[in-house]
Write a structure and sequence with these properties.
Blueprint: H1 21-28, H2 65-94, H3 98-101, E1 112-115, E2 121-125, E3 129-130, H4 140-150, H5 162-175, H6 185-194, H7 202-218, H8 221-231, E4 233-235, E5 238-239, H9 241-249, H10 258-267, H11 280-296, H12 302-310, H13 326-347, E6 351-354, H14 358-377, E7 386-387, E8 411-419, E9 424-428, E10 431-435, E11 456-464, H15 481-495, H16 497-500, E12 521-526, E13 532-539, E14 545-549, H17 574-583, E15 591-594, E16 599-600, E17 606-608, E18 619-622, H18 623-628, H19 632-642, H20 644-653, H21 675-686, E19 690-692, E20 697-701, E21 707-710, E22 715-717, H22 721-737, E23 751-756, E24 762-768, E25 772-779, H23 792-795, H24 797-810, E26 825-831, E27 845-851, H25 863-868, H26 872-879
Helix pairs in contact: 1-11, 2-5, 2-7, 4-10, 4-11, 6-7, 6-8, 10-11, 11-12, 14-24, 17-19, 17-20, 17-22
Length: 905
């Protein structure tokens, strides 16, 4: 339903021309416009000439003008309205009407508001945009303006103003048309709430009078005034003066100045026709009529009236609602819908405090978009969005331009007008801008004509020019709006008007955000990526989700890949294998023999042979190095030694709820998990082994502050402090020496793991600081390769790194105390490749963590350097006896099983 079709708006079938609005609006002031209809003047017909053979009809004395006016404009309305008022008053005095009494308890549909962790609203849900005012919150200026314009005898009548009826009838008779109505505020409220005010019938007017009298009997004047201020439709989906003040002026109703207040009062009668956004000059004229009435009623003085009347009508700039946090808020909306029902969500006006940190949310969205664009551009330019017809080029209009706000980093659609080999003129809104070579060099095309043709539409990213400086004042030297307001206040004070009436312009409010011209930017040719991604940012201590991004754009696809998409995590699953191994006594310095090996597959036959990423084998290998270099064979061997069921149990305790098939390939991430599951489980490693349930909603309250629910933390110990620290310490090595070294320069302790699946279809990085767990996934909705060597380190880690770097810079990610070892953890210097105690001969040394009593005793000697330089099959003799149950290359009976396998991380 469009705004103009709203049931509370009246059709303007006989609206006067705008050029004559001032006169008609002045005649309308203070009365019910909906009761007025325009009666066109019809010239009397010329009596036909009687035939000669017919007797001449008798001549009647023509009626005078005042008689015709009395019959049409005075007598019928007077009889109907007076009788209706008297009958209504008599009946209402003796008959109790529960329908009317219920309005005192009426709870209109209110706006459900979602608040971020700082208490700021970032999303609302409602069937009607309405913000309720209590009786005590109605500003005095609004009340004065409303009564002066609509019902100056509000506090004297009992619902129907007999004096006002007589006055309007007399004025209508004098004018010869129904220009004045006689509806009081109470009648307007009754008609709006109980009746259909679009029906301009005498029956409706009588019933309206009846309801008005009953309302006055049931409610106090202040209650009626408050209901009027809250229930009346104000246009553009807004109900009540508070919602209208927010929408049109970006202020609370108590912050409005005189001319803004008069504007809202002016549009209340016909909000569909009198929109300050669509018809500002029309509304300005109507606003001045309200100001005239306020002057006549003595509410304001002449200086204040003059200043307000001469003020331009300025409404708040309406920008397109921000889509930031759309996936996050949609998950909250679904929860509220399931918990409180449709009516509770859209009409109850719930106050919902969420866990969202908008700084983290904006950062995550920006980082993911940049990352997806970077990957997508490797595939080259795919072409423009569409081509306009030649006749459209004279005045092109694109849907993306509706409520478009030009700002740094914004993506906008533009139309190519003139294109040559090196540059193109691009039309955006009503301006043109030049696309220069730096703006399309990523396409690796030197001839721009191969990319765009005149009339074609494409995406462009705006970048604020480094040399752009916003002007400090208008080009003609006139003072800024703030200076004007100050001077106006001084003038009003000097004239003495402000002392007796509300000041005009005494609170100029927050200055409007600067509107930058297109010339302030440069443009870069862009295209929407075909691939998708997800980001989850979570507090490791509480489980509060600080940011959630479920894809490229919520408007393009509402499917939330952070919570709904299950994808194979690849090597990002390996920490669960190593955690289970640490629980049974393995240490990061223990070794396995990394070599070709065959395991029983799902058919219980020896059919599965994992391969390492570079199709090479390490031979003797520590568990630490197996994690840092993401070695596949050793990870599968370790799971086989520990037992797949134990690995599944460990993952379950960490919060993984998705199905986990206990096959050898599970160690390499063959199961399908959601990014949210992975983020919550990795948070357990940082949180000393305690799993906390991730959540979005802190509390839900009613509009009056009554708590309906508050978050109750759900936590459970998933592993010992010692195992959690060993995992964090091991994954810290992935950043310092392993597959994630590009994040090493970040100045906070970081641990994490890359993940890549076969064919480079899914790229992950899951990592954490002591206080924050962050997971990034990148891929296509339908599995396809991201490109050769597009590993987790290449595709996902750059996004993760940007999130963390920005978080550190902005302060919402803090280093904390680092990963603090529990009391039973000891440290030893060991040789990195063998895990033996370091000596002076060791060239590569790391500080390794052990649970007390599990430290190595054998020391490193120089001969190990020669042994570790040998190929894997020559190292076999120095490995010694395999661990109990360890699968070895000599156990292979069919070497064809280890050939021609796909790469995986």
């Amino acid at each position: 339903m469009s705004v103009n079709d709203h049931p509370l708006e009246r059709p303007n079938e006989t609206a006067p021309e705008e050029s004559s609005l001032a006169a008609s609006a002045l005649a309308d002031s203070g009365k019910d416009a909906s009761d007025a209809t325009t009666v066109s003047s019809v010239p009397p017909e010329t009596p036909p000439t009687a035939p000669a053979d017919q007797p001449e009809p008798s001549k009647r004395r023509p009626q005078s003008t005042w008689q015709r006016r009395a019959k049409r404009y005075l007598i019928p309305p007077l009889v109907v309205v007076l009788l209706g008022a008297l009958i209504g008053a008599a009946v209402a005095a003796t008959i109790h009407v529960p329908e009317v009494e219920s309005i005192a308890e009426f709870s209109p549909g209110l706006i459900t508001e979602l608040y971020d962790d700082q208490g700021d609203v970032f999303r609302t849900y409602s069937t009607q945009s309405r913000i309720m005012l209590s009786e005590d919150e109605i500003p005095e200026l609004l009340e004065r303006a409303l009564l002066a314009s609509e019902d100056s005898r509000f506090y004297q009548h009992g619902g129907v103003d007999i004096v006002g009826v007589a006055r309007s009838l007399a004025q209508n008779w004098m004018l010869g048309r129904r220009a004045y109505g006689a509806s009081t505020l109470t009648m307007q409220l009754a008609g709006t709430h109980f009746l259909d005010r679009t029906q301009d019938t005498w029956d409706r007017k009588i019933r309206e009078a009846f309801y008005a009298v009953e309302l006055e009997k049931t409610l106090s004047k202040r209650q009626i005034l408050a209901l009027y201020c809250n229930l009346m439709y104000m246009g553009h989906g807004n109900y009540g003066f508070q919602a209208a003040a927010n929408y049109f002026f970006d202020k609370d109703v108590g912050e409005l100045d005189l001319q803004e207040t008069a504007t809202l009062v002016a549009i209340v009668k016909r909000p569909g026709d009198w929109s300050p956004i669509r018809r500002p000059e029309l509304v300005r004229t109507r606003r001045n009529v309200v100001l005239d009435r306020m002057l006549q009623e003595g509410v304001i003085g002449t200086p204040g009236h003059t200043q307000a009347s001469e003020s331009p009508l300025v409404v708040a700039t309406r920008s397109k609602p921000s889509s930031s946090g759309a996936y996050f808020s949609e998950d909250v909306r679904r929860y509220l819908y399931d918990t409180y029902g449709e009516k509770g969500l859209y009409e109850r006006g719930l106050k919902v405090r969420t866990t969202l940190d908008r700084r983290a949310q904006v950062t995550a969205e920006r980082a993911l978009k940049r990352g997806l664009v970077r990957i997508d551009q490797r595939r080259g330019w795919r072409g423009p969005i569409e081509s306009l017809e030649p006749e459209q080029l004279a005045d092109p209009q694109l849907s993306n331009w509706n409520d478009l706000k030009l700002e740094d980093g914004a993506w906008v659609q533009g139309v190519a007008l003139e294109v040559n080999a090196t540059r193109a003129n691009i039309r955006i809104l009503d301006e043109e801008i030049s696309l220069e070579p730096p703006g399309y060099e990523w396409t690796r095309n030197t001839d721009l004509r191969r990319l765009l043709e005149p009339g074609q539409v494409a995406w462009f990213e705006l970048t604020l020019r480094e040399d752009y400086q916003a002007p400090s004042q208008a080009d003609d030297g006139t003072p800024s709006s703030a200076e004007e307001s100050t001077e106006a206040d001084a003038t009003a004070d000097a004239e003495g008007d402000a002392a007796a009436t509300p000041e005009v312009g005494s609170e100029p409010g927050t200055p409007e955000e600067s509107v930058l011209p297109l010339s302030a930017f440069t443009v870069t040719l862009r295209q929407e990526p075909e691939l998708e991604g997800a980001v989850v940012v979570m507090d490791t201590k509480t489980g509060a989700i600080r940011a959630m991004v479920g894809g490229w754009d919520f408007q393009r696809n509402e499917f939330n890949r952070a919570t709904q998409a299950r994808r194979q995590p690849g090597s990002a699953f390996k920490p669960f294998v190593f955690g289970a191994a640490y629980e049974v006594g393995f240490t990061p310095a223990d070794t396995l023999f990394d070599a070709p090996v065959v395991f029983a597959g799902a058919d219980n036959l020896p059919s599965y042979s994992p391969r390492n990423f570079y199709r090479e084998y390490e031979g003797i290998l520590t568990l630490r190095k197996a994690v840092e270099k993401s070695i596949n064979v050793s990870s599968v061997k370790l799971q086989d030694l520990v037992g797949a069921d134990r690995v599944v149990d460990f993952a379950r305790r960490c919060g993984i709820e998705s199905p986990l098939p206990p096959y050898p390939s599970l160690a390499l991430g063959a199961a399908e998990l959601t990014p949210l599951e992975v983020a919550a489980s990795y948070a357990t490693f940082a949180n000393n082994g305690i799993y906390v349930n991730p959540y979005l909603v802190e509390s839900v309250a009613t509009p009056d502050g009554k708590l309906l629910e508050t978050h109750q933390p759900r936590a459970a110990r998933a592993m010992s402090n010692e195992v959690a620290f060993l995992l964090a310490h091991t994954l810290r090595g992935v950043v310092l020496r392993g597959t994630a070294t590009s994040a090493r320069r970040i100045e906070v302790p970081i641990a994490g793991k890359t993940g890549t699946t076969d064919g480079f279809t899914d790229a992950w990085f899951a990592g954490f600081t002591p206080n924050t767990s962050i997971v990034v996934w990148v891929g296509y909705d339908i599995k396809r390769s991201l490109g050769r060597n597009m590993t987790g380190a290449e595709a996902a880690l750059p996004v993760w790194r940007e999130v963390v770097e920005t978080g550190v810079e902005e302060g919402w990610i803090q280093a904390g105390a680092g990963f603090v070892p529990p009391p039973r953890i000891t440290f030893r210097r060991v040789e990195a490749n063998t895990g033996l105690l370091a000596t002076a001969e060791a060239e590569s040394v790391v500080s390794e963590a052990f649970v007390a009593g599990s430290e190595p005793v054998q020391e490193y000697s120089a001969r190990w350097q020669e042994i570790m330089a040998l190929p894997w099959y020559q190292q076999r003799a120095f490995y010694g006896r395999p661990k109990e149950g360890e699968n070895m290359p000599e156990d292979i009976t069919d070497w064809s099983l280890v050939e021609n396998l796909d790469d995986s991380d």
